[in-house]
Protein backbone atom coordinates (compact mmCIF):
# COMPACT_ATOMS: atom_id res chain seq x y z
CA UNK A 1 0.00 0.00 0.00
CA UNK A 2 1.37 3.42 -0.93
CA UNK A 3 2.05 6.00 1.76
CA UNK A 4 0.09 9.24 1.97
CA UNK A 5 3.06 11.18 0.58
CA UNK A 6 3.26 8.93 -2.47
CA UNK A 7 -0.38 9.63 -3.31
CA UNK A 8 0.17 13.43 -3.51
CA UNK A 9 1.87 14.73 -6.68
CA UNK A 10 5.18 16.48 -6.08
CA UNK A 11 3.81 19.66 -7.69
CA UNK A 12 0.15 20.07 -8.55
CA UNK A 13 -2.09 22.82 -9.98
CA UNK A 14 -3.68 25.05 -7.39
CA UNK A 15 -7.38 25.85 -7.23
CA UNK A 16 -6.60 29.26 -8.70
CA UNK A 17 -5.08 27.74 -11.84
CA UNK A 18 -7.91 25.24 -12.20
CA UNK A 19 -10.44 28.06 -11.85
CA UNK A 20 -8.66 30.17 -14.51
CA UNK A 21 -8.59 27.20 -16.86
CA UNK A 22 -12.29 26.71 -16.25
CA UNK A 23 -13.00 30.34 -17.15
CA UNK A 24 -10.91 29.96 -20.32
CA UNK A 25 -12.87 26.85 -21.37
CA UNK A 26 -16.15 28.61 -20.59
CA UNK A 27 -15.05 31.43 -22.84
CA UNK A 28 -14.67 28.90 -25.68
CA UNK A 29 -18.36 28.07 -25.35
CA UNK A 30 -19.27 31.75 -25.45
CA UNK A 31 -17.17 32.21 -28.61
CA UNK A 32 -19.02 29.32 -30.27
CA UNK A 33 -22.31 31.04 -29.46
CA UNK A 34 -20.93 34.37 -30.75
CA UNK A 35 -20.25 32.87 -34.19
CA UNK A 36 -23.97 32.28 -34.53
CA UNK A 37 -25.29 35.54 -33.10
CA UNK A 38 -22.41 37.93 -33.93
CA UNK A 39 -20.50 36.41 -36.85
CA UNK A 40 -18.76 39.72 -37.68
CA UNK A 41 -17.08 39.86 -34.20
CA UNK A 42 -16.27 36.15 -33.93
CA UNK A 43 -12.78 36.50 -35.39
CA UNK A 44 -11.66 39.21 -32.97
CA UNK A 45 -13.14 37.37 -29.99
CA UNK A 46 -11.41 34.15 -31.04
CA UNK A 47 -8.08 35.94 -31.37
CA UNK A 48 -8.52 37.39 -27.88
CA UNK A 49 -9.34 33.94 -26.56
CA UNK A 50 -6.15 32.46 -28.03
CA UNK A 51 -4.13 35.38 -26.65
CA UNK A 52 -5.58 34.85 -23.18
CA UNK A 53 -4.75 31.16 -23.41
CA UNK A 54 -1.18 31.90 -24.41
CA UNK A 55 -0.78 34.40 -21.57
CA UNK A 56 -2.22 31.91 -19.08
CA UNK A 57 0.09 29.18 -20.33
CA UNK A 58 3.11 31.48 -20.15
CA UNK A 59 2.21 32.66 -16.66
CA UNK A 60 1.70 29.09 -15.47
CA UNK A 61 5.04 28.00 -16.93
CA UNK A 62 6.91 30.96 -15.43
CA UNK A 63 5.22 30.50 -12.06
CA UNK A 64 6.12 26.80 -12.09
CA UNK A 65 9.77 27.58 -12.84
CA UNK A 66 10.05 30.17 -10.06
CA UNK A 67 8.08 28.18 -7.50
CA UNK A 68 9.32 24.65 -8.06
CA UNK A 69 12.09 25.13 -5.48
CA UNK A 70 11.19 25.92 -1.89
CA UNK A 71 14.42 26.56 -0.02
CA UNK A 72 14.96 27.19 3.67
CA UNK A 73 11.65 25.81 5.01
CA UNK A 74 11.98 23.69 8.15
CA UNK A 75 9.44 22.16 10.50
CA UNK A 76 9.28 20.19 13.71
CA UNK A 77 6.60 18.70 15.93
CA UNK A 78 6.27 18.92 19.70
CA UNK A 79 4.34 16.08 21.39
CA UNK A 80 3.43 15.26 24.99
CA UNK A 81 5.54 12.49 26.52
CA UNK A 82 2.53 10.16 26.36
CA UNK A 83 -1.19 10.36 25.70
CA UNK A 84 -4.24 9.21 27.64
CA UNK A 85 -7.17 7.54 25.92
CA UNK A 86 -10.09 9.88 25.31
CA UNK A 87 -8.30 12.91 26.78
CA UNK A 88 -7.70 15.98 24.61
CA UNK A 89 -4.08 16.99 24.16
CA UNK A 90 -2.40 19.82 22.26
CA UNK A 91 0.19 19.18 19.56
CA UNK A 92 2.44 22.01 18.37
CA UNK A 93 3.94 22.38 14.90
CA UNK A 94 6.78 24.87 14.51
CA UNK A 95 7.59 26.08 10.98
CA UNK A 96 10.48 28.40 10.08
CA UNK A 97 11.30 30.10 6.78
CA UNK A 98 15.02 30.70 6.25
CA UNK A 99 14.57 31.27 2.51
CA UNK A 100 14.55 34.46 0.46
CA UNK A 101 10.85 34.69 -0.49
CA UNK A 102 7.52 34.85 1.29
CA UNK A 103 5.75 31.50 1.54
CA UNK A 104 2.03 30.79 1.62
CA UNK A 105 1.48 27.34 3.13
CA UNK A 106 -1.28 24.83 3.78
CA UNK A 107 -0.16 22.69 6.71
CA UNK A 108 -1.42 19.28 7.80
CA UNK A 109 0.00 16.58 10.04
CA UNK A 110 0.33 12.90 9.15
CA UNK A 111 -1.56 11.21 11.99
CA UNK A 112 -1.84 7.60 13.13
CA UNK A 113 -5.25 6.05 12.56
CA UNK A 114 -6.06 5.78 16.27
CA UNK A 115 -5.80 9.54 16.81
CA UNK A 116 -8.44 12.11 15.92
CA UNK A 117 -7.49 15.74 15.29
CA UNK A 118 -9.45 18.93 14.71
CA UNK A 119 -8.57 22.29 13.16
CA UNK A 120 -6.48 20.76 10.39
CA UNK A 121 -5.37 21.61 7.72
CA UNK A 122 -4.30 25.17 8.54
CA UNK A 123 -3.13 28.04 6.34
CA UNK A 124 -0.02 30.02 7.24
CA UNK A 125 2.09 32.78 5.70
CA UNK A 126 5.80 33.04 6.43
CA UNK A 127 8.04 35.96 5.57
CA UNK A 128 11.79 35.38 5.31
CA UNK A 129 13.45 34.72 8.69
CA UNK A 130 10.05 34.24 10.31
CA UNK A 131 8.55 31.30 12.20
CA UNK A 132 4.99 30.32 13.03
CA UNK A 133 3.49 28.02 15.65
CA UNK A 134 0.41 25.95 14.88
CA UNK A 135 -1.39 24.22 17.78
CA UNK A 136 -4.18 21.75 17.20
CA UNK A 137 -6.26 19.51 19.54
CA UNK A 138 -5.78 15.76 19.42
CA UNK A 139 -7.89 13.02 21.04
CA UNK A 140 -6.71 9.37 21.13
CA UNK A 141 -9.43 6.86 20.24
CA UNK A 142 -7.42 3.67 20.66
CA UNK A 143 -4.59 2.65 22.95
CA UNK A 144 -1.23 1.38 21.76
CA UNK A 145 1.85 2.57 19.91
CA UNK A 146 1.10 5.63 17.73
CA UNK A 147 3.56 6.69 15.01
CA UNK A 148 3.36 10.14 13.41
CA UNK A 149 4.71 10.65 9.92
CA UNK A 150 6.45 13.83 8.70
CA UNK A 151 4.54 17.12 8.60
CA UNK A 152 2.70 17.56 5.28
CA UNK A 153 2.94 21.00 3.64
CA UNK A 154 1.63 22.46 0.37
CA UNK A 155 3.68 25.55 -0.56
CA UNK A 156 2.11 27.93 -3.09
CA UNK A 157 4.16 29.29 -5.98
CA UNK A 158 4.73 33.10 -6.13
CA UNK A 159 1.58 33.75 -8.20
CA UNK A 160 -0.36 30.97 -6.49
CA UNK A 161 -0.89 28.87 -9.64
CA UNK A 162 0.92 25.80 -8.30
CA UNK A 163 1.32 23.96 -5.00
CA UNK A 164 4.45 22.03 -4.17
CA UNK A 165 4.12 19.11 -1.77
CA UNK A 166 6.75 18.96 0.96
CA UNK A 167 7.37 16.76 4.00
CA UNK A 168 9.09 18.37 6.96
CA UNK A 169 10.57 17.06 10.17
CA UNK A 170 10.80 13.45 11.15
CA UNK A 171 8.56 10.62 12.28
CA UNK A 172 7.63 10.62 15.98
CA UNK A 173 6.27 7.87 18.19
CA UNK A 174 4.18 8.14 21.33
CA UNK A 175 2.38 5.66 23.58
CA UNK A 176 -1.36 5.93 24.12
CA UNK A 177 -2.13 4.71 27.63
CA UNK A 178 -5.43 4.07 29.37
CA UNK A 179 -6.82 7.15 31.06
CA UNK A 180 -4.21 7.57 33.83
CA UNK A 181 -5.15 11.15 34.71
CA UNK A 182 -7.13 9.87 37.69
CA UNK A 183 -3.97 8.22 38.99
CA UNK A 184 -1.94 11.37 38.38
CA UNK A 185 -4.38 13.39 40.47
CA UNK A 186 -4.02 10.95 43.39
CA UNK A 187 -0.23 10.65 43.47
CA UNK A 188 0.34 13.59 45.80
CA UNK A 189 -2.49 12.62 48.17
CA UNK A 190 -2.51 10.37 51.19
CA UNK A 191 -4.71 7.28 51.30
CA UNK A 192 -7.43 9.09 53.22
CA UNK A 193 -7.33 12.05 50.85
CA UNK A 194 -7.41 9.72 47.85
CA UNK A 195 -10.54 8.02 49.12
CA UNK A 196 -12.24 11.35 49.78
CA UNK A 197 -11.25 12.47 46.27
CA UNK A 198 -13.04 9.41 44.88
CA UNK A 199 -16.11 10.13 47.00
CA UNK A 200 -15.52 7.20 49.39
CA UNK A 201 -15.60 7.25 53.18
CA UNK A 202 -12.88 5.49 55.12
CA UNK A 203 -14.32 3.66 58.11
CA UNK A 204 -11.97 3.80 61.07
CA UNK A 205 -11.11 0.61 62.87
CA UNK A 206 -8.83 0.67 65.88
CA UNK A 207 -6.66 -2.14 67.14
CA UNK A 208 -8.03 -5.00 65.01
CA UNK A 209 -5.43 -5.22 62.27
CA UNK A 210 -2.81 -7.92 61.84
CA UNK A 211 0.49 -5.96 61.87
CA UNK A 212 1.83 -4.16 64.97
CA UNK A 213 2.28 -0.43 64.34
CA UNK A 214 3.10 1.38 67.60
CA UNK A 215 2.45 1.80 71.33
CA UNK A 216 0.23 4.63 72.52
CA UNK A 217 -1.80 5.70 75.52
CA UNK A 218 -4.96 3.77 76.24
CA UNK A 219 -8.10 5.25 74.70
CA UNK A 220 -11.68 4.64 75.65
CA UNK A 221 -13.00 1.88 73.45
CA UNK A 222 -9.73 -0.08 73.19
CA UNK A 223 -10.17 -3.79 73.81
CA UNK A 224 -8.48 -5.43 76.76
CA UNK A 225 -6.27 -7.60 74.53
CA UNK A 226 -4.72 -4.42 73.11
CA UNK A 227 -3.25 -3.40 76.46
CA UNK A 228 0.49 -3.96 76.80
CA UNK A 229 0.78 -4.77 80.51
CA UNK A 230 4.57 -4.61 80.65
CA UNK A 231 4.66 -1.17 79.05
CA UNK A 232 1.79 -0.06 81.29
CA UNK A 233 3.71 -1.13 84.41
CA UNK A 234 6.83 0.62 83.20
CA UNK A 235 5.01 3.87 82.33
CA UNK A 236 2.60 3.71 85.33
CA UNK A 237 -0.37 4.19 83.02
CA UNK A 238 -2.33 2.08 80.60
CA UNK A 239 -0.59 1.62 77.25
CA UNK A 240 -2.25 0.04 74.22
CA UNK A 241 -0.82 -1.63 71.16
CA UNK A 242 -1.99 -0.15 67.87
CA UNK A 243 -2.18 -2.36 64.82
CA UNK A 244 -2.55 -1.65 61.13
CA UNK A 245 -4.03 -3.68 58.33
CA UNK A 246 -1.78 -6.46 57.15
CA UNK A 247 0.37 -5.43 54.23
CA UNK A 248 2.13 -7.32 51.48
CA UNK A 249 -0.98 -9.09 50.26
CA UNK A 250 -1.39 -10.15 46.64
CA UNK A 251 -4.18 -8.94 44.36
CA UNK A 252 -4.44 -10.48 40.90
CA UNK A 253 -6.79 -9.12 38.25
CA UNK A 254 -8.17 -11.67 35.80
CA UNK A 255 -9.12 -9.50 32.84
CA UNK A 256 -11.52 -10.81 30.22
CA UNK A 257 -10.29 -9.80 26.76
CA UNK A 258 -13.08 -11.64 24.92
CA UNK A 259 -15.56 -10.37 22.38
CA UNK A 260 -18.17 -9.16 24.89
CA UNK A 261 -15.74 -6.59 26.26
CA UNK A 262 -15.79 -4.87 22.86
CA UNK A 263 -19.28 -3.50 23.56
CA UNK A 264 -19.29 0.28 23.81
CA UNK A 265 -20.71 2.42 26.57
CA UNK A 266 -20.36 6.02 25.46
CA UNK A 267 -17.17 6.69 23.56
CA UNK A 268 -15.19 3.95 25.32
CA UNK A 269 -15.54 0.19 25.09
CA UNK A 270 -16.23 -1.94 28.14
CA UNK A 271 -12.65 -3.14 27.90
CA UNK A 272 -11.29 0.40 28.16
CA UNK A 273 -13.60 1.18 31.09
CA UNK A 274 -12.38 -2.01 32.77
CA UNK A 275 -8.73 -1.03 32.24
CA UNK A 276 -9.31 2.42 33.73
CA UNK A 277 -11.00 0.91 36.78
CA UNK A 278 -8.29 -1.74 37.11
CA UNK A 279 -5.49 0.82 37.09
CA UNK A 280 -7.11 3.16 39.59
CA UNK A 281 -8.00 0.41 42.07
CA UNK A 282 -4.55 -1.16 41.61
CA UNK A 283 -2.96 2.18 42.46
CA UNK A 284 -4.93 2.39 45.72
CA UNK A 285 -3.85 -1.17 46.59
CA UNK A 286 -0.20 -0.43 45.78
CA UNK A 287 -0.30 2.61 48.08
CA UNK A 288 -1.48 0.25 50.83
CA UNK A 289 1.63 -1.87 50.36
CA UNK A 290 -0.05 -4.73 48.50
CA UNK A 291 1.34 -6.44 45.42
CA UNK A 292 -0.73 -6.27 42.22
CA UNK A 293 -0.63 -8.68 39.29
CA UNK A 294 -2.53 -9.32 36.07
CA UNK A 295 -3.68 -12.29 34.05
CA UNK A 296 -5.41 -11.45 30.76
CA UNK A 297 -7.31 -14.28 29.06
CA UNK A 298 -9.00 -14.63 25.65
CA UNK A 299 -6.36 -12.15 24.48
CA UNK A 300 -5.74 -12.05 20.68
CA UNK A 301 -1.98 -12.30 21.20
CA UNK A 302 -2.15 -15.08 23.78
CA UNK A 303 -2.20 -14.87 27.54
CA UNK A 304 -0.92 -11.58 28.96
CA UNK A 305 0.52 -12.13 32.43
CA UNK A 306 2.24 -9.87 34.95
CA UNK A 307 3.36 -11.47 38.24
CA UNK A 308 2.37 -9.52 41.37
CA UNK A 309 4.61 -6.48 41.92
CA UNK A 310 4.61 -3.75 44.56
CA UNK A 311 6.40 -0.51 45.29
CA UNK A 312 6.42 2.93 43.73
CA UNK A 313 7.33 1.65 40.27
CA UNK A 314 4.57 -0.99 40.20
CA UNK A 315 1.89 1.24 38.69
CA UNK A 316 4.21 2.34 35.86
CA UNK A 317 5.08 -1.28 35.19
CA UNK A 318 1.38 -2.14 35.05
CA UNK A 319 0.66 0.80 32.74
CA UNK A 320 3.36 -0.24 30.31
CA UNK A 321 2.09 -3.81 30.39
CA UNK A 322 -1.52 -3.01 29.46
CA UNK A 323 -1.32 0.10 27.25
CA UNK A 324 -1.34 -1.97 24.04
CA UNK A 325 -3.60 -4.73 25.37
CA UNK A 326 -6.83 -5.06 23.34
CA UNK A 327 -9.94 -7.19 23.34
CA UNK A 328 -10.39 -9.82 20.64
CA UNK A 329 -13.19 -11.72 18.95
CA UNK A 330 -12.81 -15.02 20.84
CA UNK A 331 -15.15 -16.17 23.60
CA UNK A 332 -13.87 -16.13 27.16
CA UNK A 333 -12.68 -19.50 28.50
CA UNK A 334 -13.31 -19.13 32.23
CA UNK A 335 -12.34 -22.71 33.09
CA UNK A 336 -9.04 -22.50 31.24
CA UNK A 337 -8.28 -19.13 32.82
CA UNK A 338 -9.01 -20.50 36.31
CA UNK A 339 -6.71 -23.49 35.79
CA UNK A 340 -3.95 -21.20 34.53
CA UNK A 341 -4.44 -18.94 37.52
CA UNK A 342 -4.03 -21.83 39.96
CA UNK A 343 -0.92 -23.02 38.14
CA UNK A 344 0.69 -19.56 38.26
CA UNK A 345 -0.31 -18.40 41.75
CA UNK A 346 0.08 -20.79 44.66
CA UNK A 347 -0.03 -18.13 47.37
CA UNK A 348 -3.46 -17.04 48.60
CA UNK A 349 -4.56 -13.83 46.86
CA UNK A 350 -7.57 -11.69 46.19
CA UNK A 351 -8.54 -12.63 42.62
CA UNK A 352 -10.69 -10.02 40.87
CA UNK A 353 -12.34 -11.37 37.73
CA UNK A 354 -13.36 -8.45 35.50
CA UNK A 355 -15.85 -9.42 32.81
CA UNK A 356 -19.23 -8.82 31.18
CA UNK A 357 -21.49 -11.67 32.23
CA UNK A 358 -24.37 -13.37 30.46
CA UNK A 359 -26.66 -16.00 31.90
CA UNK A 360 -25.36 -18.56 29.38
CA UNK A 361 -22.01 -18.34 31.18
CA UNK A 362 -23.49 -19.73 34.40
CA UNK A 363 -22.26 -23.34 34.28
CA UNK A 364 -18.71 -22.58 33.17
CA UNK A 365 -18.35 -19.49 35.34
CA UNK A 366 -19.65 -21.16 38.50
CA UNK A 367 -17.28 -24.09 37.99
CA UNK A 368 -14.32 -21.74 37.44
CA UNK A 369 -15.16 -19.67 40.52
CA UNK A 370 -15.56 -22.79 42.67
CA UNK A 371 -12.14 -23.96 41.49
CA UNK A 372 -10.50 -20.62 42.30
CA UNK A 373 -12.21 -20.39 45.71
CA UNK A 374 -10.34 -23.46 46.97
CA UNK A 375 -7.19 -21.36 47.26
CA UNK A 376 -8.10 -17.71 46.74
CA UNK A 377 -10.61 -15.08 47.80
CA UNK A 378 -12.61 -14.41 44.63
CA UNK A 379 -14.38 -11.26 43.50
CA UNK A 380 -16.35 -11.01 40.25
CA UNK A 381 -16.53 -7.46 38.87
CA UNK A 382 -19.21 -7.34 36.22
CA UNK A 383 -19.92 -4.44 33.88
CA UNK A 384 -23.61 -3.71 33.56
CA UNK A 385 -24.62 -2.27 30.20
CA UNK A 386 -26.14 1.19 30.67
CA UNK A 387 -28.20 0.81 27.49
CA UNK A 388 -30.20 -1.99 29.13
CA UNK A 389 -30.98 0.16 32.17
CA UNK A 390 -32.08 2.96 29.84
CA UNK A 391 -34.42 0.58 28.01
CA UNK A 392 -36.22 -0.34 31.22
CA UNK A 393 -36.86 3.35 31.95
CA UNK A 394 -38.13 4.21 28.47
CA UNK A 395 -41.91 4.76 28.10
CA UNK A 396 -43.78 2.06 26.20
CA UNK A 397 -45.32 3.64 23.08
CA UNK A 398 -46.42 0.53 21.21
CA UNK A 399 -46.32 -3.24 20.82
CA UNK A 400 -42.70 -3.23 19.63
CA UNK A 401 -41.57 -1.28 22.69
CA UNK A 402 -43.49 -3.68 24.95
CA UNK A 403 -41.78 -6.71 23.43
CA UNK A 404 -38.37 -5.05 23.71
CA UNK A 405 -39.00 -4.12 27.34
CA UNK A 406 -40.13 -7.66 28.23
CA UNK A 407 -37.05 -9.19 26.58
CA UNK A 408 -34.75 -6.74 28.40
CA UNK A 409 -36.30 -7.43 31.78
CA UNK A 410 -36.11 -11.17 31.19
CA UNK A 411 -32.41 -10.86 30.33
CA UNK A 412 -31.72 -8.75 33.42
CA UNK A 413 -33.64 -11.21 35.65
CA UNK A 414 -31.59 -14.16 34.36
CA UNK A 415 -28.40 -12.18 34.82
CA UNK A 416 -29.47 -11.23 38.35
CA UNK A 417 -30.05 -14.90 39.21
CA UNK A 418 -26.50 -15.70 38.10
CA UNK A 419 -25.14 -12.99 40.39
CA UNK A 420 -27.21 -14.41 43.28
CA UNK A 421 -25.74 -17.85 42.64
CA UNK A 422 -22.26 -16.35 42.86
CA UNK A 423 -23.04 -14.64 46.16
CA UNK A 424 -24.49 -17.92 47.51
CA UNK A 425 -21.04 -19.47 46.95
CA UNK A 426 -19.40 -16.74 49.08
CA UNK A 427 -18.08 -14.96 46.01
CA UNK A 428 -17.84 -11.19 46.27
CA UNK A 429 -19.79 -9.50 43.49
CA UNK A 430 -19.38 -5.99 42.12
CA UNK A 431 -22.07 -5.12 39.60
CA UNK A 432 -21.57 -1.64 38.20
CA UNK A 433 -22.10 0.58 35.19
CA UNK A 434 -18.83 0.86 33.23
CA UNK A 435 -18.16 4.50 34.10
CA UNK A 436 -18.65 3.81 37.85
CA UNK A 437 -16.62 0.61 38.02
CA UNK A 438 -13.48 2.33 39.33
CA UNK A 439 -15.31 3.63 42.41
CA UNK A 440 -17.03 0.30 43.03
CA UNK A 441 -13.73 -1.62 42.88
CA UNK A 442 -11.92 0.77 45.22
CA UNK A 443 -14.79 0.72 47.71
CA UNK A 444 -14.98 -3.10 47.69
CA UNK A 445 -11.21 -3.40 48.11
CA UNK A 446 -11.22 -0.97 51.01
CA UNK A 447 -14.07 -2.78 52.76
CA UNK A 448 -12.13 -6.03 52.51
CA UNK A 449 -9.00 -4.36 53.78
CA UNK A 450 -10.71 -2.78 56.79
CA UNK A 451 -12.56 -5.99 57.65
CA UNK A 452 -9.28 -7.93 57.75
CA UNK A 453 -10.24 -10.41 55.03
CA UNK A 454 -7.10 -9.46 53.08
UniProtKB/TrEMBL annotation:
Which InterPro entries did the record assign? DUF58, vWFA_dom_sf
The alphabetical list of record keywords is: Membrane, Transmembrane, Transmembrane helix
Indicate whether Transferase appears among the record's keywords.
no
The DUF58 domain extends over 215-385
Query: Membrane spanning segments where?
Result: 20-38, 44-65
Keyword Transmembrane attached: yes
Q: PANTHER family recorded for this chain?
A: BLL2464 PROTEIN, SLR2013 PROTEIN
Q: What is this protein called?
A: DUF58 domain-containing protein
Instruction: Write down the species.
Output: Microbulbifer halophilus
Amino acid sequence: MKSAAALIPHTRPSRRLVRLLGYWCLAALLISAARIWLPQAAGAVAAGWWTAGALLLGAALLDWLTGRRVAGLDGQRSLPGNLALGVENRVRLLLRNDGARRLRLTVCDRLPQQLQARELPRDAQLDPEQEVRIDYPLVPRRRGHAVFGPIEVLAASPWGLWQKHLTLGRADAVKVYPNFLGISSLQSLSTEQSLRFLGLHQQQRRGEGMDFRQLREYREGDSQRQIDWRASARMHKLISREYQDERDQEIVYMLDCGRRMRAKDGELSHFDHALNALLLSAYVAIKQGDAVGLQAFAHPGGAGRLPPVKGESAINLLLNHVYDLHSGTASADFSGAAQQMLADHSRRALVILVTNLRDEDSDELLAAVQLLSRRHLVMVACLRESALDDLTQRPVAGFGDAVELAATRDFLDRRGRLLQQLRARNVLVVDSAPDKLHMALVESYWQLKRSGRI
